[in-house]
Fold this protein.
Amino acid sequence: MNRTCDCTFSKDSLTRPLLQLAVDTETIDDAHALVDAVYPHFDIVEIGTPLIIAEGVRAVKAIKDRWPDKLCLADAKIMDAGSMEADIAFRDGADIVTVLGCADDSTIAGVVEAARNSGKWVMADLINCADIAGRARQLETMGVDILCVHAAVDTGSDAQGLFRELAEVGDSVDCHVAIAGGISEKTLPDAVFAGADIVVVGSAISRAHQPAEAAASMLSALAESAPTSPRRREQGRARDAVQSPVEIIGAVSKEIGRCTERIDTQSVVRLLDEIDDARRVFVAAAGRSGFGVRGFAMRLMHMGRDVHVVGDVTTPSIAAGDLLLIGSGSGSTGSLVNMANKARSLGARIALVTIDPCSPIGEIADAVVTIPAPSPKARNAMDAVETVQPMGSLFEQSMSVLLDSMVVMLMQRHGLNSEDMFKRHANLE
């Protein structure tokens, strides 16, 4: 599971639930002794919060250097200074860093950014989150890779309540979910049945008479109980199931929702700024994407903007101070690449809505909004939402929803309403 790219855990990246060994000792020597005793019967080694407090992040390096073949999680429970604290843990060898789900969104964003820059992962601990399913959906949208349902030690553990929360979170998100808090060999199958992709075990291993045997038994139990998880059964048969029209319409609607929820809102704000700053706006796209950008151009016209669709016979020449907005899933369609280069040479600014921000157009664009949809043409489609639809349909639909949403944002910015805009609607129909 060594990570070599900046993609997140994908929905189908695990063939079985993983066992995470929580090392909550207070010294590095005791940590080494525990992991030595249990190795290799675990998938992820967790440098627990007590150990980090007692020994500092050097404990992370000490563990990772000794067992480089295992994923290393630093349970830092970050609550502030997200980017800085995550960077420290990643530099010392952590593959995964934890942030508290109740932390401010800006802190979460900092941890996620640090993870992406390092090619690593983020686990959000949902301990003490009030609306756990709602917060889980928000965190997934912000780019968190794993969500952990966690029973606090100080408040006692209600196992069945914990499993209900896990199932609720698992039904609400597509990313991987973990469970922590008093899990034993006896309750481990229940945790997997509730949908756990990662099971965190501490004292049930560390305090066992034979830690290695306990860990090996749990690892075996994970493999045996994996098929009983309803969530995994549903994922396994989703593509082969024959669905009714109502189910297909519902599935497509949910896909669009998952796709648009993951769009980086700051990149949308930057695109809105580019539109507001432009003297004139030119839009271009090929194929089905063209319908979306033409509709957006119409709404900009209704707002009173000077806007043109490239290719129309009335489209004037582009110049400095203008904006060329391109919709292209691959970002590499030849005609659009040539168009972008020509506009750039004439001093115009470039904006791109795409799947691949590292595409030829993305590399020269001043503003890029990335939509996490799959496409057979996109070379760098990271963390794409799974779809039942063919080819680039999900991108095209999501782009149209995005552009229509931007119309509402621009209306709010400029104090416009539908009545104002309808005055400019075509009347020669």
Notes: The CA atoms of residues 167 and 194 lie 5 Å apart. The chain has a mean pLDDT of 88. The first helix runs from residue 28 to 38. The radius of gyration is 25 Å.
